[in-house]
Write a structure and sequence with these properties.
Blueprint (H helix, E strand, L loop, with lengths): L2 E3 H8 L3 H9 L5 E4 L6 H4 L5 E5 H26 L1
């Protein structure tokens, strides 16, 4: 289970950070907070730390959303005919 930061996910997958966060809010993707060694434990409670995501989970969500998008486009084309 390789975890990558949201910034890495944005660069590697080309998906806006806001989209990744929206997927997490909808329950499609799990975000974790990775406390950095330089951040004291008390600061962790205040939201300090880097957001990370499991790369395999992200790939599954990206593929699922992609198929749903393509399927939706197919339905729209059929309705227009």
């Amino acid at each position: 289970m390789a975890q990558i930061s949201l910034d890495q996910a944005v660069r590697q997958k080309g998906i806006p950070r806001q989209t990744l966060e929206a997927w997490a809010e909808k329950g499609l993707l799990t975000l974790h907070t990775c406390r950095q060694p330089s951040v004291p434990p008390s600061a962790e409670d205040s939201g300090a730390g880097e957001k990370v995501v499991d790369e395999e989970e992200l790939d599954r969500v990206v593929e699922s959303v992609g198929w749903l998008t393509l399927s939706g486009q197919g339905w729209e084309e059929t309705e227009e005919e």
